[in-house]
Amino acid sequence: MRREPRRPVLLQGIALAGLAALLTGAPACGKGANGPGRDLPPYTGHSADLFDDGIEPDAVGFQVAAGAPPMSDTRLRERTQTGDAVVRVRVLTVTDKREDKRHTWQLGMHTLEHMAGAGPLDSDFTLEVEDTDPGAPMVHAFEGNLVGKTFVAFVRAFARAGAPDEWDEHFHLAGDTAAVKDAVQAAVLLQQVR
Considering Cα of 56, then 92, then 141, then 3, what sign does the dihedral take? Predict the structure, then answer.
C-alpha cells in the first residue's frame, strides 16, 4: 500500500479525498524526508519475509496442513512487535488493475479494531497486491469472495527502493480468529514487559 503523508486540511477535504481514493482504488504514495516521521528500513531480507504482501490460506477458508498454532507462531509475534499497525479489517472492495503488463489488485479495507502498533493508519485504506506477491494466488482465486471478509492485518512502512524520500507500506493478512487475536495480545504484553 502506498500513502500520502498527512497534511492539515479541513475535515471535509479529508473525507472527500479518502472516499475518492477508495472509490477509484488508486493507491497513494508516501513522500517525506524520512518517511512517515522516522527513518525507515529497506524492504529486503527478513522484513520482506514478515511483511510479504501475503494472505494466509486458512484466512480465506482454504485448508492446508496445520501449522504452528498462532500462540506459538514466532512470525506472528514478530509482525505484531515490529509492525506499524495491527488491525482487524473488513474488505470493502477488490479492484483488478492491468496496466502495461503490470497486474495488481487493490483491496479497499476498513478498520474494525486497532490491536497493536503506534503507527498512523487511516480507518479506510488500500492494500496493493501485485501478481508476483505471495498473496496474488489467494486474491486471484477468491477475488469476488473477499469482499465482506475480515482479517487481521499486520502493516509496516518501508523505504522505497531508488527513492529515499518515499515509502511503501507492506502487509501480511491472517485469519480473524480468536486464536490470532489472543496471540497478538500476548505479543503486545510480552513487548511491554521487556
Answer: negative
Choose among 125, 139, 180, 179: nearest CA to 57: 139
Other C-beta atoms closer than 10 Å to the C-beta of 173 total 28
Grid coordinates belonging to 128: 496493493
CA distances in angstroms from 131 to 11, 87, 104, 134, 142, listed in the order given: 35, 24, 6, 8, 14
**Do 95 and 112 form a contact (C-beta atoms < 8 A)?**
no
Residue 52 and residue 172: Cα distance in Å, rounded? 6
pLDDT tens by residue, 22-78 = 333 333 444 443 446 678 889 999 999 999 999 999 899 887 766 778 999 999 999
Beta bridge partners of 53: none
Domains and CATH numbers, the chain: 11-193 (2.40.50)
Output b/e per residue, 73-110; b: 16+ Cβ within 10 A.
Answer: bebbbbbbbbbbbbbbbebeebbeeeeeeeebbbbbbb
Helix axis angle for 178-193 and 74-82, nearest 10°, is 60
Residue type at position 169: E
Helix (H) or strand (E) holding 154: strand 150-160
pTM higher than 0.85 for the full model?
A: no
Backbone φ and ψ of 7, nearest 5°: -130, 145
pLDDT of residue 10: 32
